[in-house]
Amino acid sequence: MFKYLSSEVAHFRQQPHNFRILVLTNLVYALVLPVIDIFVAAYVMRNSNDPTKVVIYQLTIYTGIPLTFLLNGFLLKYINIRKLYSAGMMLSAVSMIVMMSLKSLDLVGIGIAGMIMGLSFGFYWANRDYLALAITNDSNRNYYYGLETFFYTLIAVAIPITIGWFIESRGSGEGVKNAYRIVTGVVFLITILASVVCFRSTFSNPAQKKYVYFNFHPLWRKLLVLASLKGLAQGFLVTAPAMLIMLLLGKEGALGTAQSIGAVLAAIIMYVLGRVTKPSDRIKIFAAGLILFTAGAAFNSALFNSTGVVLFILLLLIAKPLMDLAYFPIQFRVIDIVSKIEKRSEFAYILNHEAGLYAGRFLGAATFLILAYKVSTEIALRYAILIIAVLQLGSILVAKVIIKDGNRIAPQDPAEQSPLETEIAEKVIQPQA
């Protein structure tokens, strides 16, 4: 075992400097992601007892993200990417501070806190995605995302259960509010540490080109369809576990425990897959994640009790990283291809991709809100996830078409091409002027 671990550490050290720094930066920031994703929603749920407010909060976050992507593209002309990346991480703590300072959780206050969190996520994800694209290639992206997901999932073991039981141990009323304030203070300190690690890099800004386009290659338009399907679940899936557990179990301790169960197994699976799988395996990984997600949603809809929630979260813990492990390399490979064909900055596609995600997120959140207001919040929590999971199964067919078309335009692994294939691929990707 020690020999195996030593070889894995050696393999990591062989990666480029910026590769390692990006992984370490995201590793430190990953310590606060469970707090942002889970316990802020639990805070809104606890203090309002209204699932629709949680979804509205999430929708304001997702509205702020694409606007910040646009702002980020403009600011990259004048500000180093490390500063913008760090600002995104630190703004997440600022949003939590605003939320905790609200005397009453009205829609205006929730909206302001949500927009600030949207700014945070926008700066964070816009720059993180560009940097991940810039420092990796198609041959090591499975390893990169497998490694990241491995650490994220391990962190998901300790952080939710620790914070959940810490909050619950403070009793009720003012004690719980003070516990949330303490957690917010720790989050702020961790975001500062993540920023310090980030500044050890030599990250550079993208080439300054036009970022906003409305006409794209057909392959990219298919990727936008896939992004919209991915966004469907993101519309409220981030906060759905918190809402379900607070509704059916009622305590942050149970929320933390449920998030931690099965995370070790998921972490091991992600690391092994990232290490041993090839680009050709991505569609299988993607399909497995979507099927597991649908199965979890079916358990939740059929049972709609504590057992159903636990089964849903266990399957989601494995399904979500499986989908991400396959999705991001597929997205980045398409960007590699179409950016060369259209001779545009990679950041233009990262920006446009967010528009596709937002369309899906809006539709997903709207599905929940319509069911909640027209029928009941219980029906929405019970069936909206299943509806979206079934719709997302269509992503498998879309991903297959994207991979097939991408391989036709640019063969999958240049190292395995013949000289003639390489010459043809170069002519296709970089047509003569």
Automatic annotation (TrEMBL):
It comes from Niabella yanshanensis. InterPro entries: MFS (IPR011701), MFS_trans_sf (IPR036259). Signal peptide: none annotated. It comes from the Bacteria. The chain crosses the membrane at residues 21-43, 55-75, 84-102, 108-126, 147-167, 179-203, 223-248, 254-273, 285-303, 309-328, 349-373, 379-403. Keywords: Membrane, Transmembrane, Transmembrane helix. The keyword Lipid biosynthesis does not apply. Pfam families: MFS_1 (PF07690). This is MFS transporter.
